[in-house]
Design a protein that fits this description.
The complex is a heterodimer of chains A (400) and B (320). Chain A has 400 residues and is an alpha/beta fold. Chain A contains twelve helices and twelve strands. Chain A starts with a strand and ends in a 19-residue tail after the last helix. Chain B folds into three domains: 153 residues, Sufe protein. Chain: A (Alpha-Beta Complex); 78 residues, no CATH class; 84 residues, Fe-S cluster assembly (FSCA) (GMP Synthetase, Chain A, domain 3), CATH 3.30.300.130. The chains are: A alpha/beta (400), B alpha+beta (320).
Chain lengths: 400, 320
């Protein structure tokens, strides 16, 4: 059996999405900006896809949802253009982000910092959540931007975006949210949330890789990151990724249709897995269930190093993660674990399971068995689990 | 960069079959009890290295027969990734049958070589080489415990890059002989910094006493000091712009400025520009000098003549 529980890294493309994309490779391959029938063949499907994407986040037609190549591009656009439009011109000199943003936001903030912009990294509380009042406390008249993710990719923690949007609106500060992990998992409404910019990525909700978007509120347009042939209204030049946009539209429609299923049925499976995992001794989960996206668990198994756990799970056919896939090549511990101030010896033990609407009950049963087997084996090898520090007799009871 | 660096996520693909097998079924995993050691007529040694909070920890058990110092049995336990488990297992295997003095000579490089499938292909990717270092360190601790000495006494040299085992003295020498100025060059010449990268600069996986960037800075300072010491003997044309300004300032301080101040004036150097074969020194008169008639004739001539004589024939002084 192969079980995929790494849906916060990427998801399977929904077969209906793939089906809708297919004609745009070999048959309807025209460039939408040309003047002939090949181009015209793409116009209606593109328009419908854009309408689905607008509807998915409740964006008014007067606002812009600009299609990009990925969430990293969308995030880079916001930060670099804030730099050009507000920091470099001397109008503002400060931005606020959380300390647990995606690497594409953290790295942009560090880059701006290297160019002389001040950056406040807001701390999360012991539940792994940003408290809205902390945002309020750090805004000054020189603050250009607040950027706080909607749902954390590692823990699934849902951040109080509506309250933060309220605060930013009242103080007249631009507000960006990286909603990559929120689409299809929690209701996302750009008007209710008072956001000026919102980042999303199709492949996190069963769409194709290589397509993202940036929502931009009317009147809050930014200098383009990509200059060129004036596609996307001149906001983002580059030949339109027709198949990608069509795929993203369909994926968004499916995500909205499946939202109830995600929030109830997927949650039920997730909770069953979580209960079973917590039944193993010396196991800890970050962020209370009701404050998390319905598909995610970040769990620590004391005495079991994260990568070794991934290895054992992989041998049994199970895909999970030690945190952000972007960070899994280096030797560092999970940044969220460090940020919540978990005991230092747990920092290298975090494993993330992220489900999707494709996860089945049988798969969860299989995973529960596999996790138990892996934890038992690795705690048996572990030098730091349950051995007696004094005297050298066997202090290990395998199977606890 | 280059084609092999552009697609990530491949670390597991780079493990040798041996590493994969040892990770799944470590042969020497377990403990040795006092009773078991006594039954072998051996002394039990248990040494720990690393910490869970750093991401890896290993515990080494030895049964050593006291008459000949031979390690008759060797086992390990480990908190760590696949590479850490596989290297600990290999290390325990390599210790068996050796005397304690021989075991101390086992390095992480020996451990890594023993895990290769073929002699020329590394057993683990560069960033995982770090995990085998722990195996080396724990042997030193076990040996130190057996002999009742300090573990540092086995290390004759200060090691800067533990993954590739490159010493401080080697690095200093290679940097100077080859006049290295970048981290990439150091890595090309010595392999230091090619693996876990902790030794390159502060902020890596492990804190160090001295980093490769410190060694480069040290060499850079040395070079600057050399140039500064040679400053008096270098000709004006060979000087850097900063040295030229300092040299001109010095001549003016020693010969001219006092004279101007006595007359209630002063001057400052604005810039020095190379203009064909000439050095144009732009100056501005201050105080009483700025209105003085002689400032564009006699005084100017005196300044220019002094600078020509003391520094370079081709100097021209231009007041603004």
């Amino acid at each position: 059996m192969r079980v995929y529980l790494d849906n916060n890294a990427t998801t399977i493309v929904d077969p209906h999405v793939f089906e809708e994309m297919e004609p745009f490779f070999v048959q309807k391959y025209g460039n939408p900006n040309s003047l002939h029938q090949f181009a015209s063949d793409t116009h209606k499907p593109l328009k419908e896809a854009m309408q689905k994407i607008y509807a998915g986040i409740h964006a008014p037609n007067e606002d812009s949802v600009v299609i990009t190549s990925c969430a990293t591009e969308s995030n880079n656009w916001v930060f670099k253009s804030i730099y050009f439009d507000y920091i470099l011109t001397g109008r503002k000199n400060h931005i606020i982000i959380s300390e647990v943003e995606h690497p594409s936001v953290i790295a942009c903030a560090r880059f701006l910092e290297s160019k002389g912009c001040k950056v406040t990294y807001l701390p999360i509380n012991s539940e792994g959540i940003i408290e809205a009042h902390t945002v309020s406390a750090f805004i000054t008249d020189k603050t250009a931007l607040v950027s706080i993710m909607w749902v954390n990719n590692e823990t699934g923690a849902i951040f109080p975006i509506h309250e933060i949007g309220e605060i930013c609106k009242a103080k007249g500060v631009l507000f960006h949210t990286d909603a990559v992990q929120a689409i299809g998992k929690v209701p996302v409404d750009v008007q209710l949330a008072n956001v000026d910019y919102l980042t999303m990525s199709a492949h996190k909700f069963h769409g194709p890789k290589g397509v993202g978007a940036l929502y931009i509120k009317k009147g809050k347009e930014l200098t383009p990151l990509f200059h060129g042939g004036s596609q996307m209204g001149g906001l983002r030049s580059g030949t339109l990724n027709v198949a990608g946009i069509v795929g993203m539209g369909k994926a968004m429609e499916q995500a909205i249709d499946s939202l109830d299923f995600e929030m109830h049925d997927v949650k039920e499976l997730r909770d069953r897995l979580e209960d079973a995992v917590l039944a193993i001794k010396d196991t800890f989960v970050v962020t209370p269930r009701e404050k998390r996206a319905s598909n995610t668990i970040l769990v620590s198994f004391r005495g079991v190093e994260g990568e070794a756990m991934l290895w054992d799970l992989n041998r049994q056919g199970i895909a999970a993660s030690t945190g952000s896939a972007c960070a899994s090549e280096d030797l560092e511990s999970n940044p969220v674990m460090e940020a919540i101030g978990a005991e230092a010896d747990l920092a290298h033990t975090a494993i993330r399971f992220s489900l999707s609407r494709y996860t089945t009950s049988e798969e969860i049963d299989f995973v529960i068995d596999a996790v138990n087997t892996a934890v038992e084996r690795l705690r048996g090898i572990s030098s730091s689990y349950a051995y007696a520090p004094e005297g050298h007799e066997s202090g290990l009871s395998v199977g606890h | 960069m280059g084609i092999d660096s552009l697609i990530g996520g491949t670390i597991w693909d780079e493990y040798s079959d041996k590493v994969t097998q040892l990770m799944a079924n470590p042969k020497n995993m377990g403990e040795i009890t006092e009773e078991q050691a006594a039954a072998m007529g051996a002394k039990l040694i248990v040494a720990d290295f690393g910490a869970e909070s750093c991401g890896d920890a290993v515990r080494l058990y030895w049964a050593v027969t006291p008459n000949d110092d031979i390690i008759v049995e060797s086992k390990f336990k480990s908190f760590g990734c696949g590479t850490a488990i596989a290297s600990s297992d290999t290390m325990a295997e390599l210790c068996k049958g050796k005397s304690v003095d021989e075991a101390v000579k086992i390095t992480n490089i020996d451990v890594e070589k023993a895990m290769r499938d073929t002699p020329d292909k590394p057993a683990v990717p560069p960033q995982k080489m770090h995990c085998s270092v722990m195996a080396y360190d724990v042997i030193k601790k076990a040996a130190a415990q057996y002999k009742g000495v300090d573990a540092a006494s086995f290390e004759a040299e200060i090691i800067v890059c533990e993954c590739a085992r490159i010493s401080l003295s080697t690095l200093r020498e290679v940097i100077r002989i080859n006049e290295l100025t970048t981290i990439e060059q150091i890595t090309d010449y010595t392999k230091a910094g090619a693996f876990c990268k902790s030794c390159i600069r502060p902020g890596g996986h492990e804190a160090k006493d001295i980093y490769l960037v410190d060694l480069l800075a040290e060499y850079e300072k040395e070079k600057l000091a050399l140039i500064a010491d040679a400053g008096d003997s270098v000709s004006f044309a060979q000087m850097t712009i900063v040295q030229r300004i300092k040299a001109v300032d010095k001549v003016i301080d020693e010969n001219i400025r006092q004279m101007l101040i006595m007359d209630g004036g002063n001057m400052e150097i604005l810039d020095i520009k190379e203009n064909g074969s000439n050095f144009d020194i732009y100056i501005r008169y201050l105080g009483a000098c700025s209105g003085c008639a002689s400032s564009s004739t006699g005084t100017l001539y005196a300044i220019e003549a002094t600078l020509k004589e003391r520094l370079d024939e081709n100097i021209r002084v231009i007041p603004l």
